[in-house]
Amino acid sequence: MLRPEPIMKEKVTHKQIDRKEKGQSLVELALTLLIILTLLAGAVDFGMAFFSYVALRDAAQEGALYGSLYPTDTNGISNRVRQSSSAPVNLSDISKVTVSLSPPPYCRNEPITVTVRYDYQLSMPFIGAILGVNTIQLSAAVTDTILNPKCP
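The chain above was modelled as a monomer; its predicted structure follows.
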């Protein structure tokens, strides 16, 4: 019959935690938390800016599509862009959003480019302080082929 091996008892020592070590851990937590929250806030701001850029690109695509059918109707192209969305970017706000077109002539099989620009306001003020600016200019341009009219 096999004998069980003797159980080894380890000596457990209780270390007293010094008050200075508690304070050091708190300082490390505060510094690390500050860095992590700053990165998180930057990621949120970047995500919102990217979402705004996608709205601008979609609006420019809408204007280019309309411009490929009616290239001489510049007011109609601009209205189509501005009416395509109201969130997250209010495209109807003329003071913040600019719409520009490529110069004429507008003839069949030639390109037409619609460009939409917007100054994105950073929502986290300390991110702006780190970057040195409070706004980021977003710009989206879409080029489409003109289907009408024939050139003389």
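The helical segments are 19-69, 74-82, 125-131.
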